[in-house]
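I had to read the description of the data format several times before I understood it. The format is easy to grasp once an entry is in front of the reader. For illustration, here is how one protein appears when written out as sequence plus structure tokens:
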Amino acid sequence: MRGKRSEAIEIGDEAKHTDDWTDEMPGVDRVISVALTIEQPRTADWIAEQAAVSPTTARSHLERLVDLHILSAVEQRGAKTYYPDAAYQRFKEVSQLIEEHTRNEIETIAVTAKEDIEELRETYDVESPDELRKLATAEDTSSTEAREYFKKASEWDSHLHTVSIAEEALERYEKFSDHYQPSVDSAV
């Protein structure tokens, strides 16, 4: 295939990508970007390396994000680790749903997720994802069935989360949507 450029990233390209990232984005933004996308608690040193900043810089920004309740911190095996704050993440999901969808669309999202949950209940004759996981580990369950049960239990968890986020978005829709206008006190 002469003349076609390979889609794979070459060793030199990775360094260029890092240079572009550090040139185009301030250190604090890189720290935030890395910290909000981690899936498990990480040390400031690890986040610093990923964000291409010094550990001292990362620690400073991370502590500020903890103070703002955007991140949480915990001591693990003698090292302080950071991870996205659950309340902040939830608020962000609710806000994003309101920003990207109309009230009717959010209602449809909630109903569709509830229908999916009802279908799982009926299909597997259980009342919760945990009951489905118990079926997966039952002695007479084959490995193929177990794999399916675990996968469906995970889907069920996801549907429950969707319903929960949609319900909260509907409760807060009027206040957080673009057309909300706070009342102005005329005495001010």
